[in-house]
Amino acid sequence: QVQLVESGGGSVQAGGSLRLSCAASGYGYSSVCMGWFRQAPGKEREGVAGIYTNGGGSSLYYADSVKGRFTISQDNAKKTVFLQMNSLTPEDTAMYYCAAAPCSAFLLHGIRRIQDFDYWGQGTQVTVSS
Fold it and tell me: CA of 10: how far to CAs of 16, 64, 66, 126, 129, in Å?
């Protein structure tokens, strides 16, 4: 079991930045890959960013809409995943969720298949005003 708790959401003006954190606990953390998703009112939940790390480095995955603006990173020692969000726009307003998937599935589909992700945090709200 993996437990996930997000933090760092808030309200910012367009062009601003936020850094989300996801603290993980539980004995299964070392065998999962991590992703960030978001869901705006009236819209489906969508993948934003994902990360796979091993001894040789990390593989990063991003939605086209956030490439160049968002950066995902991971501190395995602290079991924490971060999402640095820069140049925010009102279209980034959503509830942001941290999620974990078996790496075997994640390496096949990245963040494209939400059903691969078995564990979810409670979400943290991001609101960007124009």
Answer: 11, 23, 18, 5, 11
